[in-house]
Amino acid sequence: MQEIASALGVAKSSASRWVRDVAVDPSVVRGTARRRVPRGADHPLRRRKLEEIERLRDEALTRVGVLGERELLMAGLGLYAGDGSKGEGQVKLSNSDPRIVGFFCAWLRHFFAVDEARLGVVIYLHEGLDLAAATSAWSEVTGVPPARFGKPYRAVADAGIRHNKHEHGCAHVRYTCTRTQREILALMDAVLSSNRWLRGPGSNRRHFG
Predict the structure, then answer these.
(1) Residue 173 banded pLDDT, cuts 50, 70, 90
(2) What predicted TM-score, i.e. pTM, was given to this entire model?
(3) Strand 170-176 to strand 84-85: parallel, antiparallel, or no bridges (unpaired)?
(4) In this predicted model, what pLDDT tens digit does every residue of 14-56 receive, in sequence order?
(5) Main-chain phi, psi angles of 41, to 5 degrees
(6) Largest separation between any pair of C-alpha atoms in the chain
(7) Phi first, then psi: what are they for 109, rounded to 5°?
(8) Count of CB atoms within 10 A of residue 202's CB?
(9) Is 125 within 8 Å of 131 (Cβ atoms)?
């Protein structure tokens, strides 16, 4: 299916819909799989993919540049809008990416008067993974001492999940402060209310930037 999508230049989901009623002989599929060229690190397609990723990263660094105060504030609001909890009384964010969790904690401390005693972390970690190592890693990322970590949630191990991908699980950062939570929501509302380019079809090009 992926080969069909790549050949036609469409999404894999589109190719799947187009051929879902086509009967396929399993023996043909197996024969095709055996004839495929291995896509190792030296394969031309693999090299082109890695080269494009590296080029786009370089372009992104140039395009983004150094973030000022306003840009940092907006970036954190966008992150909270996507991953943060909107419930009353607590500022909460969950993610398995240390960069995102670290950025959020730094953002929270930078723009709001954080009482460290109210800032805590809970780890979501599959059984069989090293809880002590995960606690140490997330403590370093968040700047929250292990003593302020809540009881971890240990999920039943899933054989289908690559343990080396999320060996430290997911961190749930929680800051208990109603005023801060309301302040963040007010800032999010201000952003969404002030952008005229969001208000009508076709208006984004005229007002963006």
Answers:
(1) very high
(2) 0.68
(3) unpaired
(4) 777 777 777 777 666 666 655 555 556 677 888 888 889 999 9
(5) -65, -25
(6) 65
(7) -70, -35
(8) 7
(9) yes
Correct CATH for 69-197 of 3.30.1330, 1.10.12, 3.30.1050, 3.10.50: 3.30.1330
Q: How would DSSP label each residue in 55-120?
A: HHHHHHHHHH-S--HHHHHHHHHHHHHHHEE--TTEEEEEES-HHHHHHHHHHHHHHS---GGGEE
Stated length of the chain: 209
pLDDT tens per residue across span 88-117: 889 999 999 999 999 999 999 999 999 999
What residue ranges in 15-147 does DSSP mark as E strands?
84-85, 90-95, 119-126
* DSSP element (H, E) containing 161: none
Distance between CA atoms of residues 135 and 151, nearest Å: 11
Token representation of residue 106: 């730094």
Q: Which of 79, 107, 90, 74 is nearest to 187 (CA)?
A: 74
In the chain, CATH 3.30.1330 covers: 69-197
Closest CA to 80 of 90, 70, 66, 67: 90
The contacts of residue 89 (CB under 8 Å, 6+ apart) are 176, 177, 178, 181
Catalogue the long-range contacts made by 29-34 (C-beta closer than 8 Å, 24 or more residues apart): none
Let me know if 98 is exposed, middle or buried by CB neighbors in 10 A (0-12, 13-18, 19+): middle
Tokens coding 142: 């968040």
